[in-house]
Amino acid sequence: MNFDLTEEQRMWKKAIHDFVSRDVKPSAQMVDEEGQFNWQATHKMGPIGLLGLNVPEKYGGAGVDAVSAAIAMEELGWGCGSTALSISAHNGLGCAPLSLFGGSELKKRFLPPVATGEGKLAALALTEPGAGSDLKGGVRTRAELGGGEWVINGTKMWITNAGIADFIVTLVRTDPNGGSRSLSLILVPTDTPGMHIGPPEKKMGLKGCPTHPVTYEDVRVPENFLLGEVGQGLHQTFTVLDWGRVSIAALSVGLAQAAFEEAVRYANERHTFGVPLSHHQAIQWMLADAATQIQTARLMVYFAAWLKDLGRPFIMEASMAKLNATEMAEQVCRDAIQILGGYGYSREYPVERIYRDARLMTIGEGTSEVQRMVIARKVIQTD
Ligand SMILES: Cc1cc2nc3c(=O)[nH]c(=O)nc-3n(C[C@H](O)[C@H](O)[C@H](O)COP(=O)(O)OP(=O)(O)OC[C@H]3O[C@@H](n4cnc5c(N)ncnc54)[C@H](O)[C@@H]3O)c2cc1C
Question: Are residues 262 and 225 in the same domain?
Answer without folding.
Answer: no
